[in-house]
Amino acid sequence: MESGENLNADFESVSESSGITIRLDAFEGPLDLLLHMIKKEEIDIWNIPIAHITEQYLQYLQIMKDLNINVAGEWLMMAATLIYIKSRMLVPQEKADEALPEDEDPRNELVYQLLEHQKFKNAAEMLYTREEVENAIWNKPPADVLEDGNEVVAVTLFDLLRAFSEVVQRFESQRVLEVDQEEITIEQKIQDIRSRFLVHDKMLFSSFFGEARSKRHLIVIFLALLELVRLHEVWLYQKKAFEEIQICKVKETV
Amino acid sequence: MQAIMEAVIYVADDPVKPEQFREVFPDESLETLDRALKSMVENFNARPGGMMIREVAGGYRMTTRPEHHEQIRAYLKTRPNAKLSMAALETLAVIAYKQPVTLAEILAIRGKKSSTALQTLLERKLVAIQGRKPVVGRPILYGTSREFLIHFGLKNLSDLPTLEEFAQMAGEQL
User: Fold this and answer.
1) Could you confirm whether domain A143-249 is CATH 3.40.50.970?
2) ipTM computed for the complex
3) Do residues B142 and B103 lie in contact, with contact meaning Cβ atoms separated by under 8 Å?
């Protein structure tokens, strides 16, 4: 099969010159591969020779298998879809499923999927170009970098636990009396913290627990804070490792 | 007033929004501030200096001009920033145009798993969680952040070309 040989040659020349992984990066998913084949052979998207494309697609899969590349489930799904469409195309129109309207081409769904995918590939290209331009522009580095010339350091779970145990110790050493206030829930506390971050952009971890009147209250605040970190609403950082932890609001979404 | 505005934009870390100048000029109306700001930016950008003021993410920020990037890089001795991979950019494009969107919806459009790309985008704070979809399983909804606008030099989301333009391109390409 002539086209099959071209395909193999194509693949081999690429794998020799630049390594096969690069090639597979280019075809990140089955839709990318199909688009590539369609463009390369200048196939009319509204009239895809499905038998030919299916055969080529399966050859690619075989090559990937031969190279011991782990073929993800979506590749096999697409193979199944192609084979299904091919079989539908072989059924004479009159005997086809009567529920389908006559003009329903079994390829349509795949075509729309390909067009949709190409559309977002174009949008991604636009973002790529914009990023190129932005990379050629500098603004003033943010204050955190200016202050000590160091990037901020991410906070580990251990830093966080240590800081919290310090808060608890301080609370115990200066506690006057432990009042059992009304029970405050984590949900309430989350709302409370959110409203505090409407006013402040960042806060010190140690000053975060000032209002607490009981150990239980401390723990509720701590858990609420962890939940907000998990939801990516706030993030925690240090200027340097083992320094005071800062809590910073994640920039609001637009 | 315009000179002060220029200076404030210079010292600011983030793009300065017109309403933020109310803190500086409490007696002026937003309309007056907006007009003064626009005329200052126009004058500033009309002169052939090394800096310019750009409208980004609903505010104004002072930056170097792109045409000097090679010389600036030579001075700073830096290489271009780590760029986003094509997979990350594609995922980001889907999120930008379809937001708020779930991971399953991204998968449907891209035809492949996108969780690694999404993780990168969350770490770089270009994408943020916008809540949960009120359907079975309550999947997380993702959208773009203010950082996204800044990173790509966009005034706001409607500054992006429309999806129809890309659809038309796709029609011509295929």
Assistant:
1) no
2) 0.83
3) yes
Counted domains in chain B: 2
| Span B107-118, pLDDT tens digits | 888 888 888 889
B81 domain residue, yes or no: no
Whether residues B174 and A39 touch (CB distance < 8 A) is answered with yes
Check CB contact under 8 Å for B167 and A115: yes
| Partner residue opposite A127 with nearest CB, options B72, B92, B129 | B92
Of A233, A205, A232, give the one whose Cα is nearest residue A218.
A205
Residues of B in contact with A118 (CB under 8 A): 169-170, 173-174
- Do B167 and B132 have their domain in common? yes
Give the domain range for residue B18. Answer: 2-75
CATH at residue B127: 1.10.10.10
Residue numbers of A between 195 and 224 with CB closer than 8 Å to B: none
Give A59-80 pLDDT, tens digit per residue.
888 877 776 666 778 889 999 9
Q: Is the domain of B121 the same as that of B169?
A: yes
Over the range B126-159, which residues count as b (16 or more CB within 10 Å of their CB) and which as e?
bbbbbeebeeeeeebbbbbbbbbbbbbbbeeeee
Please tell me whether residues B92 and B169 are part of one structural domain: yes
| Amino acid of residue A97 | D
Same-domain check for residues B68 and B109:
no
- The single residue listed with the structure tokens 């932890």 is A245
For residue B66, list chain A residues with Cβ-Cβ distance below 8 A: 133, 136-137
Please state, in angstroms and as integers, the Cα–Cα distance from residue A6 to each residue in A1, A20, A45, A55, B3, following that order: 9, 16, 21, 13, 66
d(CA A240, CA A251): 22
Q: Where are the alpha helices (DSSP H) in chain B?
A: 2-11, 30-46, 69-76, 86-98, 103-110, 115-123, 146-151, 163-173
